[in-house]
Amino acid sequence: MRIVLVGPPGAGKGTQAAFLAQNLSIPHISTGDLFRANISQQTELGKLAKSYMDEGNLVPDEVTIAMARDRMEQPDAANGFLLDGFPRNVSQAEALDQALKADGVELDAVLDLEVPEDEVVKRIAGRRICRNESSHVFHVTYSPPKKEGVCDACGGELYQRDDDSEETVRRRLEVYHTQTEPIIDYYRAQGLVVTISALGKVDDVTKRAMEALDRQVEGKDQSDEDKSDSEDGDDK
């Protein structure tokens, strides 16, 4: 199964991607991992991407697309993959379609994780990180520390990262609405989008996602079968 995962920041894409990839036995391919792997391994694409990043510039779409295509062509992705963080805009989505078409394959579904904007702000702006150990993460509403501002695990000071401030979160949402959200309409026109609520327990969201993907694939298979029957009839 070949899937693109979309949703606003704070929708839980990383968490759901990991569970879905495991359940479907396909690799989870995230943009962040692609960049880190290529840069750490000093591939030609990694060196090129780093040259842009070192100058404070955005990495061009063609570099990101080349990294993604190289990863999708690895043996473990032969039976499918789950793309997380790519494509980020319609231009990248069009390029992805062209790359898949050249390889003789196509996407099966685009899973859209839907979360109200106020909930996104609440989820991200409520995070608190331990200064001693960044893996110690709390939330003022969902998982508060026993003592306000103090890490339960080591007693370190809890703080809010600049990236988690409400102002920053709302700016990130604006970027998402402007740049990434349009790909949903792009893929909806192809009949690929399945939208689910990303509210609730992680396991419940995963179950919801798996059921939606199953329905999408069943519907797609039926559509392909009907199309094939119609073409056979035309031939006669």
TrEMBL record:
Positions with a binding annotation for ATP: G10, A11, G12, K13, G14, T15, R127, V137, F138, G200
CDD domains: ADK (cd01428)
GO cellular component terms given for this protein: cytoplasm
Binding site for AMP: T31, R36, N57, L58, V59, G85, F86, P87, R88, Q92, R161, R172
Pathway: Purine metabolism; AMP biosynthesis via salvage pathway; AMP from ADP: step 1/1
Keyword ATP-binding: yes
GO biological process terms held by the UniProt record: AMP salvage
Bias-annotated ranges (Basic and acidic residues): 213-222
UniProt-listed PROSITE patterns: ADENYLATE_KINASE, GUANYLATE_KINASE_2
InterPro entries per record: Adenyl_kin_sub (IPR006259), Adenylat/UMP-CMP_kin (IPR000850), Adenylat_kinase_CS (IPR033690), Adenylate_kinase_lid-dom (IPR007862), Guanylate_kin-like_dom (IPR008144), P-loop_NTPase (IPR027417)
Enzyme Commission code: 2.7.4.3
Keywords: ATP-binding, Cytoplasm, Kinase, Nucleotide biosynthesis, Nucleotide-binding, Transferase
Biased composition (Acidic residues): 223-236
Domain Guanylate kinase-like: 1-214
Pfam families attached to this UniProt entry: ADK, ADK_lid
Family: Belongs to the adenylate kinase family.
Function per UniProt: Catalyzes the reversible transfer of the terminal phosphate group between ATP and AMP. Plays an important role in cellular energy homeostasis and in adenine nucleotide metabolism.
Subunit structure, interactors included: Monomer.
Domain writeup: Consists of three domains, a large central CORE domain and two small peripheral domains, NMPbind and LID, which undergo movements during catalysis. The LID domain closes over the site of phosphoryl transfer upon ATP binding. Assembling and dissambling the active center during each catalytic cycle provides an effective means to prevent ATP hydrolysis.
Protein name: Adenylate kinase
Originating species: Streptomyces liliifuscus
